[in-house]
Design a protein that fits this description.
By secondary structure, this protein is mostly helical. It has 2 domains: 71 residues, Orthogonal Bundle (Arc Repressor Mutant, subunit A), CATH 1.10.10; 52 residues. The chain has 6 helices and 2 strands, in the order ββαααααα. It has a two-stranded antiparallel sheet with strand order 1-2. Helix 2 crosses helix 3.
């Protein structure tokens, strides 16, 4: 009979969980598909761990998950790559482009105001944040409109 003093506590193994975004390393937003990208580029687990600032054990847990669920992981990975290749639908891309143009115009206004030595930059920022965007949402309401 072993005494409690001789028992080694079980190692806390990094877990792979699914919160609806696909299998990911518990406590992170790093999916097994993120890890797979680098594995396919022949990165070592230690290098991947350093890149993502996670432990090697966490990478090893993701690799083990990939190895145990190879077919389903690769099927989903292919879907992800196909979705990336398709790009955004035209209506979404138009909204993104309009938002980018709006932001670039704002940056230009701020730089011009700075060059003229104006001090009303906080007011420009306030107005930019209050400008209506697509669907009358405001940048400052964090999507609550």
């Amino acid at each position: 009979m072993k005494s409690a003093d001789n028992q080694v506590p079980p190692l806390l193994q990094p877990e792979i969980i699914d919160r609806g975004r696909g299998p990911e390393i518990k406590g992170t937003r790093i999916t097994v598909y993120d890890i797979l990208d680098y594995l396919l580029d022949s990165w070592s687990p230690d290098r991947i761990a350093a890149w993502f600032r996670i432990s090697s054990r966490q990478v090893e847990a993701a690799v083990a998950y990939i190895n145990e669920h190879t077919i389903e992981v690769l099927k989903e990975y292919i879907k992800i790559l196909e979705r990336c290749d398709r790009g955004n639908p035209p209506e979404l891309q138009a909204k993104l482009d309009a938002g980018q143009q709006r932001f670039q115009d704002f940056v230009r206004q701020v730089r011009e105001a700075q060059a003229r030595g104006e001090t009303n930059i906080p007011e420009l920022i306030r107005k930019y944040r209050e400008m209506p965007t697509e669907g009358n949402a405001h940048a400052s309401d964090h999507g609550r409109s």
